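Let's practice the habit of predicting before peeking. Look at the sequence and jot down your guess about where helices and strands might fall. Then scroll down.
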Amino acid sequence: MTLLTLLAITVIALLGPVLSWVTRWRAPVLVGQILGGLLIGGAGLGWVDAGDSMFTLLADLGFALTMFVAGSQIPVRNPELRPLLVKGLIRAAAVAVAALALGALISLTLHSPDWLIYTVVLGSSSAALALPAMAQARLTGPAVTATMAQIAVADVASIVLLPLVMDTGRALLTIVGALALCALTAGVVLALRMMRRRGMLSEAHRVSRREHLALELRISLVLLLAFAVLASQTAVSIMLAGFAAGVAVSAIGEPRRLAKQVFALSEGFFSPLFYVWLGASLSLGDLWSSPRHVLLGLALGFGGLAVHAVGALTGQPVSLALLGGAQLGVPIAAATIGMQTGALNGGDAAALVFGALISVVSLSATVPLAARRFATQR
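Done guessing? Here is the structure:
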């Protein structure tokens, strides 16, 4: 990778916000970034090589930072979340059962052996998409909080399960790695809480702000990379490493200054670069040349919304139930891991991302419906 190539990638990444700005329906920024990657990747103009080792390394870091932001947005310290966690668990379990049935049906219909992958993708939720959208729309109330709990549970469970179903041959090593990450997360949380009780975090924050040292960001990046190294050595996806590091920071309370710094670092460079890399890695020729792949994308996209609508059977408002159907991290992770390990071909990976984009676009229509009933007055 050269500086000229990097310049082309960053310029193309601007297609995301531009597309979101000029379109009447406010297309999600990541849609434009993925389309930009398709344009300059092997399926388009061929300006960049998605297999370049430096490009892949930067994209992995972008993926980890994206999941770190998602994990840091899980409201683990919200006292309203805990009493409603059981209700969220029950609804997440109901969605999982429906996803299992639909995943098996899709696999049987399309003669695919990847029914477990489809099940995890269908039952997943995206905290990185849904929670900010709910906060921006100012959705409040017990039903909203219970939905937040359900989304958090589904997001965490699917992130843990995905590496297991993607490579069953190394399931034991993956389980050990996941347990090691959990232990590391717990240890980091305990250490940070002890430092906070002794006033060490407050003092570090004060000095960092006075001297412009960005200590919080530096420490967070050290934690993120330590989690990523552990994941890479134990056959665990870097997705889980980033998410676990974000949850650890969220558990002790992410300072507003740190949140802005991480957001700027992620959304300003690394996250767009990851989505451009993802688009450049996809083979839409395989998707459109095969009706099977198109049907798979449609089935996963609309099927994910359908299985989450099962929550209405438990008394959950349909508009809130559909918010849980917004999927991003898990389908993209499945496509990324599948291409890296050879578990999926280019067409299947593109179908997973196509299905995720369907759910992302549906979020823009679902949030206004929920806001009519659950939004507070501005």
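How did you do? The CA atoms of residues 100 and 119 lie 5 Å apart.
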